[in-house]
Amino acid sequence: MGLGVTPQTVLPRLWITKLFGEIASGQESHLKSLMDFYNICMDNIMRNSLRLPQRCVLPKTDIHLALQDNMPLPSYCKGMLKALTFIDRNTLRQEQLQSLNWLCETLRGFSSYINARHVFGSEEFSFEKNAQYAKRILTSRISDTVHQMRFSESCREQGHNAVSNEDFDRKGVEAHLQGILTKDDETTLALINDLILVIERELITENFKQRHQMAFDKLYEAQPYLILRSRKAQIQFNMGDIKAATDELEALLPLTLNDAYKNRYQLYNCYIKQKSWSSLDQLLSNKSEGSFGDLATRTLLAYAQEGDTKSARLLKTELKSTYPAVELLFDPAKGDGKSHCELSADTVNEYINRGGKKAWCSVSGGLFWLKAKS
Fold it and tell me: Where does the source fall among the domains of life (predicted)?
């Protein structure tokens, strides 16, 4: 929740390392659970539905017991204070700095009994009264600080000015980003994950997805998000992590009812690599539009399940007659002479880029059968 107060998104690799140190290999399920919880917290921040955990209590008597080390309230406040150290105070406006200082002072007061005595007063009666009042308004103080940091009129004006700045080289940044995202490696995957998390915090929250689920893929704001998630799945596939790519695409497909980015091609090929024939058949039934990728997949499925049967040969004949550029699958050199219309070749190459050739190669004899005459 403290990370939600920060005016700029803190990249996961920074705060995770600060909390837990270097994450050992094999901890992917723990990290996924952590990031799922992080997204829930960020969604609460965006909706302004802030609540302290129920165990963060301050009784009217024996306050010192509730403020011992490792008790819920001090642990919560110390965790939030740790998150707030990511904020660069030199960049804050006066009202932001004042709100942050008030919040930090309150959090510090609840981080231990000694600090509480220092912050809330030394006299017994005034101390208890001040501490109870500070506890009652703690959630409001967090909410007010979030507003000052992220949603105030000054923040919106600053954001608008940044977008409108004529000195901002948008094309240069886009070209640089595109150059980075073309690589299939762990570094690129980590960058994409960070970008996705930033977008999910700032705009594409779970609440946003639910509100716009029937037209999500038509929203201008959603396009960078969809492109990044599609690219993420493609990198996972190319790196051989077929299970992760499958999970990503299965989660992504419901957000793109029209499948404008042809993510089903990648998912087709994930199912083929895993020999998940029933899942593939169901997806073809639900999403197939008769495009090259759909017909090529249906043909390969028939061959994988039936072999060189009459029905499989009929599909192969239809595929090769409708899309002559299919030979780019087994003879890439054919594309050099521009012997196929550009549109047809682009369609086949898109299918190949989504793992189409790898899928055919994963079925024993598939490409040889496709190349052979019926």
Answer: Bacteria
Spell out the alpha helix ranges (H) of 165-203: 170-181, 186-202
Are 256 and 186 part of one and the same domain? Answer: yes
* Confidence at 166, pLDDT banded by 50, 70, 90: very low
Look up the pTM and report it.
Answer: 0.60
Q: Do both 248 and 179 map to the same domain?
A: yes
Domain boundary pick from 114, 144, 164: 164
Q: Which domain, by its residues, includes 21? A: 2-164
Name which of 108, 113, 112 is nearest 141 in CA terms.
108
Rounded CA-CA distance 196/200 in Å is: 6
| Cα 288 to Cα 213, 263, 294, 296, distances in angstroms | 21, 12, 6, 11
Residue 207 carries which side chain, given as an amino acid letter?
Answer: N
Q: How far is CA 315 from CA 11, 234, 344, 351, in A?
A: 49, 27, 18, 17
Report the alpha-carbon distance of residue 230 to residue 331 in Å, rounded.
Answer: 27
